[in-house]
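Query form — protein SDR family oxidoreductase

QUESTION: What is the three-dimensional structure of this chain?
INPUT:
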Amino acid sequence: MSDRIHVVIIGGTSGIGRHVAESFAARGCDVVITGRTERRAKGVADEIGGHTRGLGLDLTVQEQIPAALSDVHKVDRLVLTALERDHNTVREYRPADAMRMLTMKLIGYTTVIHALAPRMSDGSSAVLLGGLAMHRPYPGSTTVTTANGGISALVRTLVTELAPIRFNALHPSMVADTPYWRDKPHGWEAVKARTPTKRLVTMQDCTEAIAFLLENRSINGVNLSIDGGELLI
Ligand SMILES: NC(=O)c1ccc[n+]([C@@H]2O[C@H](COP(=O)([O-])OP(=O)(O)OC[C@H]3O[C@@H](n4cnc5c(N)ncnc54)[C@H](OP(=O)(O)O)[C@@H]3O)[C@@H](O)[C@H]2O)c1
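ANSWER: The structure tokens for SDR family oxidoreductase are given below.
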């Protein structure tokens, strides 16, 4: 096994996860990225280059998660960012869709940590992605708001159960240059106008915040909002 830093990014084939993977790969780390299919994960890993490899892992199929990660032997830095979006409201509730997303995000993330914890050391750390919808719901965010609240609580129990491994969460506002948002300016113009910085959060902002949460050895159990001060308005 190499003495490089070993990074695992669950949901590293797209968006924030891929951006984080590119950053760690450029620093010479050993990087494992996952997506739902091995084919796509391997293809993206090849595009990223360096010491990056891709694994297939579907967080909605929890019983397969440990086997999917059996080839990961050392974890210094873990980022859990995978998401399947669910647009849902209480009045027109679709429980099956809500259950799929909540299961993948909360039970799925926890199952990954359960599988990888024995391969983490005292100096290891992890960051879980939630989102600002935890504090500021928007129409249709019922499941997302619930999931993000769950992530906020989950880091607290992870810190206490798995000490001294550190766990933190990042809660971004809308990240306008992610694949989901970059072609939808009608969706983010209002957010930009009300944000005190008059700019939107970027993937670069998220990657820098994730690196800080992963690497500062006294940051533990923190739920960090990254929103340009949007919550103050
Ligand atoms: N984008 C934003 O504006 C924003 C704002 C606030 C919070 N966040 C949070 O930031 C995180 C990343 O968001 P993003 O927009 O960057 O993500 P994204 O581009 O939509 O990428 C989602 C990732 O999750 C993987 N994935 C999807 N379903 C999966 C499943 N069932 N099992 C395993 N992996 C699965 C995808 O892999 P494959 O497609 O290869 O399967 C992909 O790598 C999310 O947790 C989200 O809640 C994002």
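ADDITIONAL NOTE: Helices lie at 15-26, 38-48, 65-68, 95-116, 142-162, 185-194, 203-215.
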